[in-house]
Specification:
single chain, 402 residues, mainly alpha, Serine Threonine Protein Phosphatase 5, Tetratricopeptide repeat, 2 domains, 75% helix
């Protein structure tokens, strides 16, 4: 059978495996160190006695403790507002916006900048106003880049992110540049431009480490692991995933911890270490079950089912094939519950492939046909092509040449 998503070269049959990537909304922020503009990453602009919380907040930010820094900047904002010091109020807002961006609270960050923009315009703080205006332009380009990618308009997505990165560089805004680089890499990944995917994440990793931004560092490591895994460089991929896993656990990033465990599990499956593979995959499933995310659980169970299929191919035990079908069935149920058609299509394809492997051609045809109809409905042309290949193989084996 042919797989819908090739993870690695299989022996004499191919199965779909999901690599659980983190494409979910994350953004970056700003470190504007321009002599003409206010820099939200420097605090020399005010005396420590006047702005007592800013120095402490800056130290916390440099140490990577963004939540503590945000709390300190909030205190400074309240103090400035109480004292009717509009200049400090705007600068504190920009600082808060930076930390909210780093913490992935994008909408809150944007609102902080809009408020700072309005005050700076009203008070005629020209440099601060221009800084906020440029940052909000980066926000819009960032959102456009993701929107274009979602609709398959990849060139427009790339242009949006590259323009955003250019603006961030002009402001020396490393935080904004960082997240835009990662999002740009996802567009290249969807285009299967793996070299560019890796390059953007290598650049992002360097910036994240310089900023002590552990969450972004961990995401870049996951993506570099994925790059190596797609090239079947399993040893290097495992090193990236293990490093990312340690950071995810230390920063309590449960979704990313699950992603690392899932990807490590698929690698152990590919090298024939099935017990180790199941150990990692079940750990990923427990985390996703705790988070109660049906789609993630579906992907975990799909991968677990595939491991049991591989085990059955080597052991020739009916019990392994039965387990594979059991987990595939649960995975399919959860994918339907989540309403995620692409995942449902791939699981149906896997079930069909397994039935064909077991000689159950009628069951195989039924699942392939259902999978094809679903793929046709959502115009998943890659899936349609692979499923037609699988159907063709069955008909060929049945000597049904028409």
């Amino acid at each position: 059978m042919f797989s819908l998503e090739k993870i690695s070269a299989m022996k004499h049959f191919k199965i779909v495996l999901f690599i659980l990537l983190i494409f979910f909304s994350s953004s970056d922020l700003l470190s504007i160190q321009n002599s003409k503009n206010f820099s939200p990453n420097t605090v020399q602009f005010l005396d420590k006695k006047i702005a007592p919380y800013l120095k402490e907040g800056e130290i916390a930010r440099q140490n990577g403790d963004f939540q503590k820094a945000l709390e300190l900047y909030e205190k400074e904002f309240i103090k400035a507002k109480k004292e009717n010091d509009k200049n400090r109020e705007v600068k504190s807002l920009i600082k808060k916006a930076l930390l909210n961006w780093n913490l992935g609270q994008i909408d809150i960050s944007k609102n902080n900048y809009i408020e700072a923009l309005e005050i700076s315009k009203r008070e005629n703080f020209r440099n601060l106003h221009e800084t906020c205006r440029t940052i909000l332009e980066i926000f819009n380009l960032y959102a456009d880049g993701k929107k274009f990618r979602l609709s398959g308009e990849y060139n427009q997505s790339i242009d949006s992110f590259i323009t955003a990165i250019s603006l961030a560089k002009k402001l020396n805004s490393k935080e904004h540049e960082l997240k835009c680089l990662r999002q740009l890499s996802y567009t290249y990944l969807e285009m299967n431009s793996l070299k560019e995917f890796a390059t953007q994440n290598e650049n992002a990793l360097k910036i994240a480490q310089n900023l002590n931004h552990k969450i972004e560092e961990e995401k870049a490591l996951i993506n570099l692991g994925l790059f190596c895994q797609k090239l079947d460089n399993y040893y290097k991929a495992l090193n990236y995933y293990e490093e990312a896993l340690q950071i995810a656990r230390s920063t309590n990033q449960k979704a990313d911890e699950s992603a690392c465990l899932n990807n490590i599990g698929t690698i152990y499956k590919n090298i024939g270490e099935y017990e180790d593979s199941l150990n990692y995959l079940f750990k990923a499933f427990e985390i996703d079950k705790e988070m109660d995310i049906d789609l993630y659980m579906s992907m975990d169970l799909n991968n677990i089912g595939t491991v049991y299929w591989f085990m059955g191919m080597e052991s020739n035990k009916d019990s392994d094939f039965d387990r594979a079908l059991f987990y595939y069935g649960d995975a399919l149920r959860l994918a339907k519950k989540a309403g995620h058609k692409k995942t449902e299509i791939r699981i149906l394809n896997n079930i069909g492939s397994l039935h064909d492997n077991l000689g159950n051609s009628i069951e195989a045809l039924d699942h392939f046909t259902t999978s094809f109809k679903n793929a046709e409905n959502i115009k998943d042309f890659e899936a349609m092509g692979m499923i037609l290949n699988n159907l063709g193989i069955i008909y060929y084996n049945q000597r049904n040449y028409e």
